[in-house]
UniProtKB/TrEMBL annotation:
Family matches, as InterPro entries: Carb_kinase_PfkB-like, IngK, PfkB_dom, Ribokinase-like
Name of the protein: Guanosine-inosine kinase
Organism in which the protein naturally occurs: Thalassotalea algicola
Cross-referenced SUPFAM superfamilies: Ribokinase-like
Pathway as given in its UniProt record: Purine metabolism; GMP biosynthesis via salvage pathway; Purine metabolism; IMP biosynthesis via salvage pathway; IMP from inosine: step 1/1
Catalytic activity: inosine + ATP = IMP + ADP + H(+); guanosine + ATP = GMP + ADP + H(+)
Alphabetical UniProt keywords: ATP-binding, Kinase, Magnesium, Nucleotide-binding, Purine salvage, Transferase
Binding annotation for ATP: 284-289, 357, 402
Domain of life of the source: Bacteria
A Pfam family annotated for this UniProt entry: PfkB
HAMAP family: Gua_Ino_kinase
Record function comment: Catalyzes the phosphorylation of guanosine and inosine to GMP and IMP, respectively.
Cofactor(s) this protein requires: Mg(2+)
């Protein structure tokens, strides 16, 4: 496991330190490893540049993810082919991307649950998915199916906004029997998306996801939900509020999804509202950057060294240097918030925003998982007197998340091809402090 966020820290792995008496590395103890699990609809993104007229022609709503029939798929695919509009075909899926990016950032294991075609041929979509996924993502638990995985037409307009058309194939046939309960119970987090509930009669994905969630809840494994697309939430906001309240610890969304679930358009106010239901919130807000919110016990709160920020909650970032905790672990819970503007003011030119939110979540998961890793291996560290959810402060995690998003904005694929640099040439060392 690499160190998360700020990439130099003398305390992270004292287990690797040389013994001062012998000047040798203590090799007697093996490091205990940990992993995270994600469930997804296994999809390949087919990316093309289009305009509004194209979206209108196929009755697609800009910025949304929508399921399309086989008939529309054939017509759409033919049009893209005939006009030579396809730029890339690359592994996708919101949780698939998150697991891949987590594994690249952490240089460590994640497990992806979903379906995979039984018969794979060189060059087909299943082949492409596997070959575009980090070898650190464990695909051994995928359930074989007799047919194709899904295709996600990722249609990018001039502003970089993406619209998704999903041709489902057999992506929703993951069966509850394929959910290994002990795999979930020993994970550092279970990551799911609201897309898993968008199924047709006969599909078993929702049931499988619910089984995994209940298992994680019972084992005290944090459940992380990403809201996916505002459409889904708008249809049944009350269902989602209840679901989140009952089953979810960490909620991640963009400002539109935040509006759909809370009725608040201000991302800070929405994040605050979500704290009524969950332990921690990540709300990305495009060019406005990123907000995070959580809880800390009074005795562990830490004051920021940055200027206090105005907003729906006055001085809302006052305790952003605190490490967030589960609400149940706080004797005197205090709500903490942070905001960060896009890294370096955002890139000069955005290739496309597809997956920027997934990358932010991957960075936060890295920090959470690093905390578990550190606790398992250096349990007596003063770091763990506080039963925190993450290794770093809310403020530090938001910087890291933002940095990871930036990397996705300046490339075409939603998946990182390499980890982040150890040192940022462009930044003062102080940027990463705390
Ligand atoms: N136009 C922009 N300018 C600068 N930074 C941006 C812009 N759009 C996105 N970002 C950065 O990317 C992060 C995530 O963006 P966004 O809110 O678009 O995620 P998202 O809608 O969840 O993405 P996706 O669902 O495709 O993963 C933001 O917090 C910000 O750091
Ligand atoms: N699992 C899943 N991923 C989706 C869906 N629609 C879009 N995405 C993915 O979202 C990613 C960007 O967040 C893209 O790479 C898409 O593959 C969907 O319905 N289900």
């Amino acid at each position: 496991m690499k160190f998360p966020g700020r990439r130099q820290h003398k305390h992270y792995f004292p287990v690797d330190n040389k013994n001062p008496l012998t000047n040798q590395i203590n090799r007697s103890s093996r490091l205990l490893r940990n992993y995270i699990v994600g469930i997804d609809q296994v999809l390949v993104d087919i990316e093309a540049k289009i305009d509004q007229a194209f979206l209108d022609e196929f009755d697609l709503q800009r910025g949304m993810s929508q399921v399309i029939s086989d008939e529309v798929t054939e017509k759409l695919y033919q049009r893209l082919k005939d006009e030579n509009l396809i730029d890339y075909e690359f592994a996708g899926g919101t949780i698939g991307n998150t697991m891949h990016n987590y594994s690249v950032l952490a240089d460590d294991r994640s497990v992806l649950l979903g379906v995979m075609s039984k018969n794979i041929h060189v060059g087909d979509y299943a082949y492409r998915f596997i070959s575009n996924t980090s070898s650190r993502v464990d695909l051994n638990y995928l359930q074989p199916v007799d047919g194709p995985i899904g295709r996600c037409f990722t249609l990018i307009d001039d502003s970089g906004e993406r619209t998704f058309g999903i041709n489902a194939g057999l992506i929703n046939r993951l069966h509850p029997d394929s959910i290994d309960e002990s795999l979930i119970a020993q994970a550092s987090a279970l990551v799911i998306s609201s897309y898993l509930m968008r199924t047709e009669p006969g599909d078993t994905m929702t049931e499988a996801a619910i089984k995994a969630v209940k298992c994680a809840n019972a084992a005290g494994v944090p459940v992380v939900l990403t809201l996916g697309t505002k459409h889904l939430i708008e249809k049944e906001p009350e269902f989602w509020r209840q679901f989140v309240k009952e089953h979810v610890n960490i909620l991640t969304m963009n400002e539109e999804e935040a509006l759909a679930i809370t009725d608040y358009s201000d991302p800070l106010q929405a994040a605050d509202k979500c704290l009524d239901w969950v332990d921690m919130v990540i709300c990305t807000a495009g060019a406005e950057g990123l907000y995070m919110a959580g809880y800390v016990d009074e005795q562990y709160k830490r004051e920021t060294e940055y200027a206090l920020l105005p907003g729906f909650i006055a001085d809302f970032n006052q305790y952003e240097y605190s490490r967030p905790m589960l609400l149940k672990d706080c004797e005197q819970p205090l709500r903490i918030y942070t905001h960060i503007a896009p890294y370096m003011g955002g890139p000069d030119s955005i290739k496309n925003t597809n997956g920027a939110g997934d990358a932010a979540l991957a960075a936060v998961l890295h920090d959470l998982s690093a905390n578990v890793y550190h606790k398992r291996n250096v349990g007596k560290s003063s770091k763990h007197v506080q039963p925190a959810l993450s290794y770093s402060s809310l403020s530090q995690m938001s910087k890291y998340a933002n940095r990871a998003s930036y990397e996705v904005l300046v490339q075409h694929s939603p998946r990182l091809s390499r980890g982040l640099p150890e040192r940022e040439d462009s930044l003062e060392q102080a940027y990463w402090a705390i």
